[in-house]
Amino acid sequence: MMRRKLVAGNWKMHGLKADLGEVRAISAAMPDNVDAALCVPFTLIASAVEAAGDMLIGAQDVHEADKGAHTGCISAGMLIEAGAGLTLVGHSERRADQHETDAQVKAKAEAAHRAGLMVILCVGETLEERDSGRAEAVVTAQVAASLPAGAHGMWLALAYEPVWAIGTGRTPTEGDVAAMHGAIRAKLRELIGGEAESMRILYGGSVNAANASALLGCADVDGALVGGASLTADKFVPIIEAAAALG
Prior knowledge:
It is a single chain. This protein has helices at about 20-30, 45-50, 75-80, 90-95, 100-115, 125-130, 135-145, 175-190, 210-215, 235-245, and strands spanning about 5-10, 35-40, 55-60, 85-90, 120-125, 155-160, 200-205, 225. By secondary structure, the chain is of the alpha/beta class. It has one domain (about 5-245): TIM Barrel. Strands 1-2-3-4-5-6-7-8 form an 8-stranded parallel beta barrel, surrounded by 5 helices. Strand 7, helix 9 and strand 8 form a beta-alpha-beta unit. The model has no long low-confidence stretch (mean pLDDT about 95).
């Protein structure tokens, strides 16, 4: 099944209004045959939506509750009001730094979907888990425990992020990437049957212009979740173009 490529940028804790020119430049270079999005800090969402034209702007996290005594947190409804169209959930940095569990990630994805947001759900293994031969078992267990009710490719994508490759310049081999994405696809088939074929599985971990074509060309890789290389049009647009070239 041909799934339309999705390339999403994660700006993490970067981005001020002075950087909106990069949003405009990325949007202006968008090909017609690929989906692209930028997940920016909460403070920049509304301004980025104005700058982005037809390109999707998303958040980097969402709270599982609709409202309440959750100081410093942002609900799905707040994201919608700001103009966001999607959100990340379960990024490895939140799983590690904020100790988020699979159950919390699942609840966040379900809350986002109820509000009408698209979701990119992140899973991935540490270096110790990779080196001990447990990578596929760890990642597929995360998929099973984090997958929200009603999961479907119309609103949900998964992103495989080998934690040890994020921001390090290291990447798994193309064979490793294809094997992991295949294992994720197999787990999805087990969990949701034929609807697994509609689900896009993105690769995330030190994606750049030099390696994008090779990584995006791997079996069952339907796009990329890009960190540092998404901060400027000069670095991000070539990745989007590599995805477009693959159809």
